[in-house]
Amino acid sequence: MKRYILNLFLLVMLFSVSACSDDDLGPSIFDPSTEELTELDLWMQANFTKPYNIEVLYKWLDIESDMAATLVPPTEDNAAGLADVLKKIWCLPYVNIAGSDFFCKLAPKQLMFIGSSRYNSDGTVTKGSAEGGRKIIIYEVNQFDRTNATRLKRYMKTIHHEFTHIANQTIEFPKEYELISLGYVEQWKNMKDQEAYDAGFISPYAMSEPSEDFAEMVGIMLSNSRAEWEVLLDKPATQDGKDKLQQKLEMVLNYYRDVWNVDLYALQEECEKAIYEVVNNVNP
């Protein structure tokens, strides 16, 4: 009896396989093919992925972008141009001054380019963001112009700012920093630049919270020359404001020196030199 049941089962399976093989179910909904790499893809891999383990995302991927915002992808020319410039004014200066170990340890795993700005419901505009130390997003890529130093410094201010967040997420800055200024406000966007300076902040956005305050100090310092930075530090109309900025600067410099063995003034000089060479098409 058991042998009869086994034979019957095998016969049913044989007909089932035959029936399946004869049915035309149409094309699979799963695409097993992989997109062919373009010349730009290969360049990104050679100049970012292999040396620094950074994946540059410039093609439109819904899963990687903010679905709540209306965003525009970058053009390939702008993505290529910005990537080339970022290597020269971001990656190489950091490696030259701080070393490849420092840069590779803190570099984001992904660098995402968005062509447009990101407008927020509160009226502010996001220039860049960092996601848990894993990804840095750069907006306004379609406004890229390698001859415009102001535009390049704006990109770099975002990069330096977000890179600082990654450093702080890895090793926190001293809690004492939060006690220098007690004027953090939720409605920072309503503050004027001079109001921020007088309260001891380097920008209105720095007034939002201590971590942004710290990152703004680094981002603005490294995206300006030494002379420009000294002018900004002298902006407060009150001595109290000037003293607070100096206290914050000392704590920022000490953090990078003691924790990461990085001289921020040397890095500032290297970044300024790199931007000059790019804008003026000077071969280093």
TrEMBL record:
The signal peptide here is: 1-21
Q: Which residues form a coiled coil?
A: none
Quote the Gene3D superfamilies the UniProt record gives: 3.40.390.70
Q: Matching InterPro entries, A to Z? A: LP_HExxH_w_TonB
Kindly state which keywords UniProt assigns to this record, in alphabetical order. Answer: Signal
Tell me what this protein is called.
Substrate import-associated zinc metallohydrolase lipoprotein
Q: Which organism is it from?
A: Butyricimonas virosa
